[in-house]
TrEMBL record:
Keywords: DNA-binding. Coiled coil: none annotated. The keyword Lipoprotein does not apply. The keyword DNA-binding applies. This is HTH tetR-type domain-containing protein. It holds the Pfam family TetR_C_8. It comes from Paenibacillus plantiphilus.
Length: 192
């Protein structure tokens, strides 16, 4: 019984998120009313408020869900034990990141629009940073003098920057090209 309730709640929240995402393609978040969201989703306002206290909470839920999907897709790359750096940043590994964004380009195009979702890029950056920091084998390959937190933030910022560039270019390049370019960039700093 409890699982059935959870599925209904998830379906309702998914419908509300979907309605908001469709409405935000044409409007700024401030212009969209709860009534418009619920009308689009075919629910009443009471249902909306049963799941979200306000639009801000809905927006945060959309951002959190997108980031969780992104992180869960790339996380296996960072938790494979004793994996050398050159394997972690190979074209195949990088392709997972870009392919996920390419497969979900409609939502990422909206999320990377700072006028619609101003906190998305920063939250994504910190989530990627935490993921890199959780890779103990990866981090122990560096000297003790390296500020690991700064390094991880710099790497995550670079990835978010690449993704932002790609989105702003309206995906002019395919995921394979973006992955290859990321590897070529990383090679510049890994030469001995």
């Amino acid at each position: 019984m409890n699982k059935k309730t959870d599925r209904r709640i998830e379906r309702t929240k998914r419908d509300i998120r979907f309605a908001f995402m469709n409405l935000i393609t044409e409007n700024d978040a401030e212009q969209i009313t709860v009534k418009e969201i619920t009308d689009y989703a075919n629910y009443n306002r009471t249902t909306f408020y049963a799941h979200y206290s306000d639009k801000s909470e809905l927006i945060e839920d959309i951002i959190d869900e997108a980031i969780q999907g992104f992180i869960s897709k790339i996380e296996p790359t960072f938790h494979n034990g004793e994996v050398p750096i050159h394997v972690k940043f190979s074209s195949d590994t990088s392709l997972v990141v870009f392919k996920y964004v390419e497969d979900n380009k409609l939502i990422f195009s909206l999320l990377f629009d700072v006028n619609k979702f101003p906190s998305f890029q920063e939250k994504l950056c910190f989530s990627i940073k935490e993921l890199i920091e959780s890779d103990i084998h990866f981090l122990k390959q560096f000297k003790d003098t390296l500020d690991k937190s700064l390094y991880c933030y710099t790497q995550s910022s670079a990835l978010v920057g690449r993704l932002n560039f790609w989105v702003k270019q309206e995906y002019a390049f395919n995921a394979e090209y973006m992955a290859d370019q990321m590897v070529e960039y990383l090679k510049l700093f890994n030469r001995k």
